[in-house]
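Is this the right way to post structure tokens for a design question? Let me know if I should format differently. Anyway, here goes:
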């Protein structure tokens, strides 16, 4: 019996909400890559998976975006993509960086899902989601948060861990949804990580 067998009732309607930048940082902190095909298959084998959302900002006006292959693959393979254009800025070291905060979009979708979902799995350690988690819990939805405290620094805020019905360390799911990291490839990408934990 794996961890998800204990957390998901076979009749539960389940949805996955993936904060792309946050999950990328957590996986990078653990030195693993997420196998999104396996992730979907694992959750389809538990409960009744209604929807799998993936949230990310995209850099516009580039001939090639390093995240584009992943986004295209997810879009054609069972994920609901929620995107918006990333904003460009120059960091303190003078480097060109991009940021795109998807918190509002994810929180709104989580609130709307409370009408048809029993159990949400939120792949993010961002404490900004606490109010949304508490709101859907009041409507009867259970929320399990997937992030990590085993990386340096930890990716999951104490607030979100307290608010969640269950906290699952991403490190404990690696055997189910991970794969060894690849060398830099065409699907490697960097997110600007400007969010507070």
């Amino acid at each position: 019996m794996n961890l998800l067998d204990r957390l998901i009732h076979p009749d539960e309607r389940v949805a996955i909400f993936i904060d792309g930048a946050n999950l990328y940082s957590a996986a990078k902190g653990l030195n693993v890559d997420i196998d999104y095909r396996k992730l979907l298959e694992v959750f389809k084998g538990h409960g009744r998976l209604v929807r799998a959302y993936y949230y990310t900002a995209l850099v516009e006006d580039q001939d090639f975006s390093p995240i584009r292959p992943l986004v295209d693959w997810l879009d054609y393979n069972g994920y609901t993509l929620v995107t918006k254009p990333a904003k460009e800025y120059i960091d303190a070291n003078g480097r060109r960086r991009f940021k795109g905060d998807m918190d509002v979009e994810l929180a709104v979708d989580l609130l709307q899902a409370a009408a048809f979902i029993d159990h949400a799995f939120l792949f993010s350690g961002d404490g900004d989601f606490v109010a949304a988690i508490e709101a859907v819990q009041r409507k009867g939805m259970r929320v399990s948060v997937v992030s990590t405290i085993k990386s340096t620094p930890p990716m999951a805020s104490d607030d979100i861990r307290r608010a969640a019905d269950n906290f699952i360390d991403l490190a404990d799911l690696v055997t189910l949804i991970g794969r060894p990291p690849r060398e830099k490839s065409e699907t490697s990408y960097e997110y600007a990580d400007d969010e507070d934990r």
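Format looks fine. Someone answered above. Worth noting: The beta strands are 13-19, 33-34, 48-58, 80-85, 87-90, 96-99, 119-123, 142-147, 166-169, 178-179. The helical segments are 3-7, 20-30, 36-44, 68-76, 103-113, 130-138, 158-163, 174-177.
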